[in-house]
Design goal:
This protein is mostly helical. It contains three helices and no strands. The model has no long low-confidence stretch (mean pLDDT about 85).
Length: about 80
């Protein structure tokens, strides 16, 4: 090891930048984290991935999200079947 290192050209931050991800600090209730961890273990995926999916679904951006136009179309089709 050297006695001194030159950090004059050093840059702060992660060594490898993450694309599409942001590290944040967030406080969640223990029971919420425990439930996501439990479910993620049984489904074989990471609990943070599962939390991302739940948040996307809540925001209406998930793969199973339904907008108002699609919902109206489904309701019309179902009403035709019953009426």
């Amino acid at each position: 090891m050297r006695k001194e290192y030159d950090f004059s050209n050093a840059v702060r931050g992660p060594v490898i930048p993450q694309k599409g991800k942001t590290r944040i600090t967030i406080y969640l209730d223990n029971d919420i984290i425990d439930e996501f961890r439990s479910r993620s273990n049984s489904e074989g995926m990471g609990y943070q991935t599962m939390m991302n999916e739940a948040l996307r679904e809540y925001l209406g951006k998930g793969p199973n999200s339904i907008d108002a136009k699609t919902l109206r179309k489904i309701l019309r089709e179902e009403l035709r079947k019953t009426g």
